[in-house]
């Protein structure tokens, strides 16, 4: 009668014993699964060693914690799930009140030695202490970890760059003969699930995650599953804090052309702006890595603007030098005019006080002192000619009236000779006067007041047009490369 009731109870519960008579320990006792049983923990859980253990892997990206360009490090927070089959584990859930899975301490069972190639620092958080088994012998281990991995940064288009960082999963010592790796999800599923569980992305925007399987070509190689995380930098902060300020400094340098070149304010202003750009370059140097295959465009941007501003500073120095030269020339002209007036006064005084022949040529000294009126020599020459001509006539008359006076003829010859010598000297002085007048006129034309100022203004105008053209072309080409390069 009792047996009939028991069978009737099994029929009502579809062959499942009542739950109050079942426990997880009953399952473990049935499997003889204990910490001391080396069957489960010592070796790969296969009954034939030639049969490899197939491990499926699933990876979800929970957060992008940090990307350190200077050290080329990628720090994500990932969730990994590993599944494999243990051939020694199986039971009938109907015999244990429908229990189809049990959680166990992780050290009880053998676990595949899967690692990440790019990982440089081990996760400080302890791994998950438990794993799960089901009635078919499938084992599942879930683990979350913060990875510090290497990532080759391509910063050519910084801060408008897109980075691809890999997480390569493989076994440490087992080859394809022992363990075969396979992803449990494809790229689309991995991307969608990661977006659903994403908590934070730091300054990055997660784009997608690509799953690639590199199967071993022979049994002595290893299977590798590569998860490629693609992310784009949020560049707004860099635009506001770096690119725009440098552009503002360039605009200030262009506006400095409106400042007068006569004082030193323009030069000091340009030097200040140049130093400000230098400070921003030092900040950029702390961000970018020391080694790169190509010069980043943002470095070209800073160096180019720095070079243009330096060229503008040199042009300002040249213009100020020309204007200073013009100012010096004006002061020299004033000094020359003063010396010329003094020279004329001295010449006229010497001319009126001269009585002897040597004193009559004192005016010649003023010619070499750059006098403006050397023509005063001409009356002296004419007066000498007249006196000599008159004296000659008198001597000839004396000779005609009184032939006995031979000494008068001799004196007349001397006078004639002196006359010719003075005539020759007068011609030479006339030629010297023309030469000096020509030299003085050329000097006045070149060094007249305002000449170098006009040259400086022309240089400034031409350079401003050239500077504005070069700056415009440089910025257009650079921004086109940022968008397409």
Walk me through this protein's architecture:
Residues 243-479 form the Neurotransmitter-gated ion-channel transmembrane domain. It catalyses: Ca(2+)(in) = Ca(2+)(out); K(+)(in) = K(+)(out); Na(+)(in) = Na(+)(out). Keywords: Cell membrane, Disulfide bond, Glycoprotein, Ion channel, Ion transport, Ligand-gated ion channel, Membrane, Postsynaptic cell membrane, Receptor, Signal, Synapse, Transmembrane, Transmembrane helix, Transport. The chain is of the alpha+beta class and 485 residues long. Helix content is 49%, strand content 19%. It is built from eleven helices and twelve strands. Strands 1, 2, 3, 5, 6, 7, 8 and 10 form an eight-stranded mixed beta sheet that branches. The protein has a four-stranded antiparallel beta sheet with strand order 4-9-12-11. A hairpin with a 4-residue loop joins strand 1 and strand 2 (73-85). The longest helix is centred in the C-terminal third of the chain and has 57 residues, at 297-353.
């Amino acid at each position: 009668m009792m047996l009939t009731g028991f069978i009737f109870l099994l029929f009502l519960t579809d062959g499942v014993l009542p739950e109050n008579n079942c426990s997880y320990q009953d399952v473990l006792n049935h499997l003889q699964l204990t910490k001391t049983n080396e069957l489960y923990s010592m070796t790969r859980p296969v009954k034939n060693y030639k049969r490899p253990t197939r491990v499926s892997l699933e990876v979800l990206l929970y957060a992008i914690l940090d990307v350190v360009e200077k050290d080329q490090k990628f720090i994500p927070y990932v969730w990994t799930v590993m599944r494999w089959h243990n051939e020694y584990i199986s039971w009938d859930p109907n015999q244990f009140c429908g229990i189809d899975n049990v959680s166990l301490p992780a050290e009880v069972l053998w676990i595949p030695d899967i690692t990440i190639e790019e990982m440089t620092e081990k996760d400080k958080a302890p791994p998950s202490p438990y794993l799960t088994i089901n009635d078919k012998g499938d084992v599942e281990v879930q683990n979350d970890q913060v990875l510090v991995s290497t990532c080759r940064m391509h910063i050519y288009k910084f801060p408008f760059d897109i980075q691809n960082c890999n997480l390569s999963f493989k076994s440490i010592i087992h080859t394809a003969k022992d363990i075969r790796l396979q992803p449990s999800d494809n790229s689309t599923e991995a991307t969608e699930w990661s977006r659903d569980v994403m908590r934070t992305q730091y300054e990055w925007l997660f784009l997608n995650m690509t799953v690639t399987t590199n199967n071993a070509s022979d049994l002595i190689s290893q299977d590798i599953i590569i998860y490629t995380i693609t992310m784009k930098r949020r560049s707004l902060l860099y635009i506001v804090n770096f690119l725009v300020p440098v552009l503002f400094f360039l605009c200030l340098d262009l506006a400095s052309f409106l400042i007068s070149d006569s004082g030193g304010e323009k030069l000091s202003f340009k030097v200040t702006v140049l130093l400000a750009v230098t400070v921003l370059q030092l900040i950029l140097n702390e961000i970018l890595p020391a080694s790169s295959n190509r010069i980043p465009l943002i470095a070209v941007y800073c160096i180019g603007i720095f070079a243009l501003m330096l060229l503008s500073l040199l042009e300002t120095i040249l213009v100020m030098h020309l204007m200073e030269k013009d100012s010096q020339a004006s002061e020299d002209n004033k000094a020359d005019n003063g010396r010329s007036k003094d020279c004329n006064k001295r010449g006229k005084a010497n001319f009126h006080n001269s009585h002897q022949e040597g004193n009559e040529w004192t005016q010649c000294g003023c010619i070499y002192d750059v006098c403006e009126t050397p023509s005063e020599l001409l009356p002296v020459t004419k007066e000498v000619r007249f006196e000599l001509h008159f004296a000659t006539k008198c001597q000839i008359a004396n000779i005609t009236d009184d032939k006995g006076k031979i000494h008068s003829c001799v004196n007349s010859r001397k006078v004639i000779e002196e006359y010719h010598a003075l005539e020759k000297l007068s011609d030479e002085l006339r030629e010297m006067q023309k030469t000096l007048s020509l030299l003085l006129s050329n000097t006045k034309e070149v060094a007249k007041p305002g000449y170098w100022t006009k040259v400086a203004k022309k240089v400034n105008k031409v350079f401003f047009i050239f500077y504005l053209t070069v700056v415009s072309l440089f910025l257009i080409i650079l921004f086109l490369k940022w968008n397409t390069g």
